[in-house]
Give the backbone structure.
Amino acid sequence: MNENHTVEWSTFPAPASLPEVAPCDWTEALNGPDIDNTQVIVLDCRRDESGALPTDTHAMTQKVSDALRSWSGQQRFDASTFLVLTRGAISVSADEVADPTGSAIWELVKSAQSENPGRIILVDTDSLDKGLGDLFGLMAVRNMTVTAVASGEPQLAIRGATLFAPRRNGVGHAPDRATVASAPSTEPSIVRMFRQAVADDRFADGLEFLLAAAQLRPAFDHYTEGIPKGIGLSGGTPHNSGGDTLPHVVLISTPAFLGGYIQYILLAAHLGGHRRVSVIPLSGYEPDEPLPASLDAAIDSIGRTVLDTVGDDEFVLAGMSGGGNLAHATAARLLEQDNTRLRGLIIFDSFIAREANERQMGTARDAVVDTEAMIPDLAGFTTERLTALACWLDLLLQLEYQPVECQALVIKCTKPSPTHNLNEWPIETWSTEQTVQTVDTEHVALCSTEAHTTAQIVDQWLRQLSPTNG
């Protein structure tokens, strides 16, 4: 008998605080280095190989069984948590019909939970995201993972923004918690006013308002060690532990992406199996971080942070969109200082002309809105993040460009973005010695759905740049 019929699902509020969790795909974890793994490892069972809802119950349960057996049988995974993700496997209300294959997976995993108490989590969702292979899918999975870990529930259903946990015979892991009525908004007035500006299609006016507020925040005019915080791909890790091939790739964050390092996580996953990769965030996005008092202070701070991060490594600077503009300015500054470890520059669909950058504002609007909805803990609207956004976008418009004297790789898109057709923009001169490559995609996809293609181009160029280390 299907136990789902005897289970009552109770709603409960979202956790008040969320841990720092970066989910790892099971296949990547299994094929990764033979070292202790403390991550939350995700086995996504929402689709079969064709991308459809799974219908072959035997094949799917065998896949899950094999994964659980391999995970539990390897000492390197002893400190990890295993999360199995399904779609429509259980019914939380009378109008839902449970998927038979998903239900079978749940029964199998629940048996494994009893043998591995506290180490396996079951999450069922109605989300149609594309999973860990797509940037927005990765953010959705990460958001569900963080919520599941914070809830403390071994079994969780997520329907939209509503959370459910099982109760059996009136008891269970989730007490009988009624859905909490929405409380009056406690958001700061700056956040509320910016939301209204976006809703009214007045993004530019909203940025002007945020810039005025940013000028009231503490500012730095010289480099301060330890600011900004959280350098790395996740949890403050200085660089990925997957590889040591040089040159070290140092990615500069895009100002419009409020989630910091996560904008590059797919690109780093494709590069980081063998190559050292770091991400440099921009100061001011988190509480107690000052904003740069000037463009000069901003570029100097990024440059010093890069040098602190790479140590004695040879390195290349890289950046997507506005991050590419900042990477270019930082490269120019380091070359002025006669830095000999900077080997090159990589530009991912960035633009020099002011007109082009102004036309990209639609992309900035979409980026902040989409990521805030997807990963509110990392990129949710706060006074700090929004005022930092306005400050850094304003600094971008102050940049002046001269070709840097180093090798550069410029990667351009061939398809128009939803907000602009800058794929047809003329090739601009970033360096005295540049290589131009194209990817048959649109702007945002370079580091998301086409990250594997982008990473391949980057790696090939780096091998030519440094044949002895590549």
The CA atoms of residues 20 and 139 lie 13 Å apart. The chain has a mean pLDDT of 84.
